[in-house]
Design a protein that fits this description.
Low-confidence stretches: 1-28, 531-535
Radius of gyration: 27 Å
Helix content: 25-40%
Mean pLDDT: 89
Strand content: 15-25%
Oligomer: single chain
Number of helices: 18
Length: about 525
Amino acid sequence: MKLSFKHSFCAFLALSISILFSSCVKNMAANTFTIANGTGAVTFNPAQITSAESERIYAALYEGLVTINSETNQPQPGLAAAWHFSSDNRTLTLILRKTSWTDDTPITAETVKKSWLYLLQNSTNSKKFLMTELIKGAYAFSVNQCDESAVGIEIVNDSTIKLHFTSPRPDALQCLATSAFAVLPMHVVDAAGQAWADSDALVCNGPFKLLSKENNGTVNLTENRKYWNHSNLALARLIFLPAGASSSVYQDFKDGKIAWIAQVPENSYGLVAGDRNLQKVMQPVVHYCYINNNHGTLNDVKVRKALSLAIDRRILVEDVLDGKAIEATSIVPLQEWQNDNEAFNAEKAKELLSAAGYPAGKNFPELTLVTNTEDLRHLSVMNYLARCWKENLGISVNIEDADWAHFSAKRRRNGYELCRGGWQSFTSDGASFLEQLISTDAENAGKYNNPKFDALMRQAALCTGDQRQDLLKQAENLAIEEECALIPLFYESELQLFNSDTWEGFNAQNVAATGTLNYMNIRLKNISPDKIMAK
């Protein structure tokens, strides 16, 4: 039977649509980024984030005023298209771009202010302290000691907001990039209360929106076409699997079904140890040994340097800590701060101790090293230090193991000779680790006091960018390398698996440093966004 032209054309059109649909579906699958997100509970409410699993989902669903570029680790525009600091770094003015929520409600400066006032009094986010420490009057408002007029959040106009700080804060942009400073759909929050984020029709403003949350905990996100920067988004879908690194998950990773295993549990290390995509990255947590700089023997820099050089950190990490850490050469656990400075030299340590008047440890006073009982790992590390000093310097150090209350009290009043210490930061800013060495800082447990160091830190507080970084590195070199105010020991680490054969735009170290991933940077290798078929 002969087909008419009309029927032939319709058949051809149907076939073309079928082929196009098939191609789009295939392309969407190719641009689906699947994450083994871990097994912790997740929330879509930024005010309730307490886990890394939730942080990773937050970064896809919401955008704050500032984001962090996962490749460069530098702040970049988010809801704020531009900003400028005052000359004293005590005020930050941000210009908002014109954008809206997924329900088309505009996001304005008032939205931002209302969000942050709400968070100050309702947030249980583990990073909330960044907000209360940054903004003038924020802490007092959070505990109902003042009204909102005393909080340093000023609306200039619908698209401009000004933040006031109690001290110079050139690190403010890094703080604003965290979930502590989330911008919320307050029109939804006001209507639904604390359950506002439980809706299947979740209102958000990030590059992705909620597609579904399955009964098994899998979270499916799809691109948010209303996102202001959607044209530069290379991914079509995100899938978050409630999974760690089991054998089946690892097999899916090897088969290309999973792009990123965000955190490989310690008990799975043997399973993945030989994978060339395995990356061991430092977390923003450093452990060190405080030195009482006021002590009659320890106030000699030669003695302090001898103590540091006598510690073989490689053995500390590999044997004492079972490889679950990274040797510390700096007090700042960021990649760009690492150096090739000599960390272990037993012979030089002996020479320094001898030059200080204690050849082979002779007449050196018996010291006490204080640690706390809550974590047996701390005790193992401190025992190792004592062994190094005995074997390499011939000196005796006793270990005092105290409960946290007594340990912290002794540390606060400088009532020790040597003491375990550690520090964690939620921003990738060196000053957060160095400020504890300022002579007037309450956390300066070793009572290090150098006016030149203090001056460098004051200068850095008034600068931004490379100039600030250079001043901070000068300060650290003075306090740690030249004067050994304390002894850096190791950084905490984590293991990640990222399929670098297929994907790019991912820097595992930067992701670990900031605790989040900018999905706008992720793309298929050798495929630029403008070459990707319509999603």
